[in-house]
Structure formats: C-alpha cells, structure tokens
Amino acid sequence: MNPQYSLSFQNGDFLLNAQKQFGYFNSFYSISAVKNSYEGKGEAYMGYLKGNFTGSEFNLFQSGEDGEELVATIVYEGGCKCSSYRKMEIYLKNPSLN
C-alpha cells in the first residue's frame, strides 16, 4: 500500500491529500482536493510533488488547463536525512511574472 497523507485545518475541515506513487527513482506524490481520491488525472487532481534522488530538493507542480506549471521549490540544507530537523528554504513562483 502506498503511503497516504492528509492536510486539514485545525477545526478538522479537509484541505487536501497526497499519496506516494511507486515506480519512480525519486519521491513522487499525487495531490488531490477530494478526500480519499488519489487519481492522477480528473477534476480532483491538483498536481504533484516530485523530489530529487537524495531528498534534498522538491518541486511542486500545479495541474491546469495549459498543462503543468512549477509553483514552488523546497530545498533542504544538506542531503542527509539522519537528523529529524533540517533547515529548509521555500521558493515560490511570482504569479505576476506570467
């Protein structure tokens, strides 16, 4: 079974969920706006999160009418996952640069 994650507000309202997809050399998660729906395409499909081989960088892609678009990049300092806390930087795409 593929690992599944859910994100909710403090009051319990559902926001989104993600499921790790196997068959890739790196981390790859499908993100959906419908609870317990992990389809790779369709109305509920929001996009995906894709990591590099070492787990030090992740790219968040949004699904839209014009295809997929890079929304954010998350970079962890150092590639080692041995410590439970790592420094991270998040780079968001500026929507006014379209």
Termini separation (Å)?
39 Å
Number of helices: 0
Stretches where pLDDT is under 50 for at least 5 consecutive residues are: none
Give Rg in angstroms.
Answer: 14 Å
Element-level helix/strand string: EEEEEEE
The fraction of residues assigned to DSSP E strands is: over 45%
User: Structural class of the secondary structure composition?
Assistant: mainly beta
The whole-number mean of residue pLDDT values reads: 82
Strand order in space, largest sheet: 1-2-3-4-5-6-7
Multimeric status of the protein: single chain
| Helix content estimate | under 10%
DSSP E strands, number: 7
From the spread of the alpha carbons, the general shape counts as globular
Question: Would you give an account of this structure?
Answer:
It is globular, with a radius of gyration of 14 Å. Strand 2 and strand 3 form a beta hairpin. The protein has 98 residues and is mainly beta. The N and C termini lie far apart (39 Å). It has a seven-stranded antiparallel β-sheet with strand order 1-2-3-4-5-6-7, with no helix packed on it. The protein has no helices and seven strands.
